[in-house]
Write a structure and sequence with these properties.
Layout lengths: L14 H11 L11 H15 L3 H10 L8 E5 L7 H5 L4 E6 L2 H13 L5 E5 L7 H4 L3 E7 L8 H11 E10 L4 H11 L11 H11 L5 E11 L1 H12 L7 H11 L9 E13 L7
Parallel strand pairs: 1-2, 1-4, 2-3, 4-5
Antiparallel strand pairs: 5-7, 6-7
Helix pairs in contact: 2-5, 8-11, 10-11
Length: 287
């Protein structure tokens, strides 16, 4: 669909803030302490969602329950290991999941097999390079989860979502980081934490969509993560490594800083918050 912006006299200048964030995070995490850290981190993520019985995904589908029906065809952008894909596939006719990461796809396909789900088409492709004309109004729901931080052109991404949808679009995004990773950042870098790795994409998307005149339904939910010590070290290093190189020495410092926060069984139990917003394509604010 063609996106028309409202002619607003006063607008929020969100672009400078977002561009600054993207510049700061460019290049990815510098993780030198383990050559297999990316593979292990992907496995950690898949393991967590299964151990949590897809809690994040089940709660996300509850957000959609007001408009989901069994006949729907859904497009999911960046499904990861199937956090939302698996629960959602049990409620709709078909899901198409697009992901560029072969690591993610391997875990997704494994998890779909384990759950006996055969109504998910997994596509290995860069979403930002997909053919808009081929996707135009093809799906009843188009959504992404924890994906916005990867997008250089957020307006273009949202327009592509709307183009592919004939009914609804949705965004699900983590909201805030736990205190521990912020404290570790300060200890390792010597700098006071100032929101360097907040999952900030939801409010930029909200501003853009309101400028377009969309009426958004916004809610939130929480879910629980559990990690072993080494999983927690890898997770924390993935954030810290965006600002300092994490070699074996820094990884050991991280290990020492997080270890006292484990429970009696050596496990880290964390509650995380998530913002969910959805809107009907073509929905416009009056006036």
């Amino acid at each position: 669909m063609i996106t028309e912006k409202r002619n607003l006299k006063y607008k929020i200048n969100w672009k400078d803030a977002r561009e600054g964030i993207l510049r700061e995070r460019i290049g990815g995490a510098k993780l030198r302490f383990d050559p297999d850290v990316k593979t292990k981190s992907a496995s950690d993520f898949s393991k967590r969602i299964k151990e949590g019985e897809y809690e994040y995904g089940r709660k996300a589908t509850e957000v959609f329950s007001g408009f989901l029906d069994p006949s729907m065809e859904v497009l999911e952008i960046g499904p990861g290991p199937g956090t939302v894909t698996v629960p959602l596939s049990k409620l709709v006719r078909r899901v198409t999941a697009v992901d560029l990461s072969l690591r993610n796809i391997a875990h997704l396909e494994e998890n779909l097999r384990e759950e006996g789900r055969d109504n998910v088409d997994v596509i290995h492709e860069n979403w930002l390079r997909t053919d808009d004309e081929a996707l135009r109004e093809r799906y009843d729901l188009v959504f992404c989860s924890h994906f916005l931080w990867m997008i250089p052109d957020l307006e273009g991404h949202l327009a592509k979502m709307e183009n592919a949808s004939r009914r609804y679009c949705a965004i699900i995004q983590p909201a805030g980081r736990g205190r521990l990773v912020k404290d570790v950042y300060t200890e390792i870098t010597g700098r006071e934490y100032a929101g360097e790795f907040e999952p900030d994409g939801d409010y930029f998307a909200y501003v853009i969509l309101r400028e377009w005149g969309r009426l958004l339904n916004v809610t939130h939910f929480s879910f629980t993560n559990t990690m072993t010590l080494e999983e927690k070290v890898r997770s924390t290093a993935s954030f810290i490594g965006r600002f300092v190189e994490v070699d074996e020495g820094v990884a050991e410092r991280i290990r020492g800083l997080v270890r006292p926060h484990a429970d009696a069984n050596g496990v880290f139990v964390e509650t995380n918050n998530v913002v969910a917003m959805w809107w009907e394509v073509g929905d416009r604010a009056s006036g």
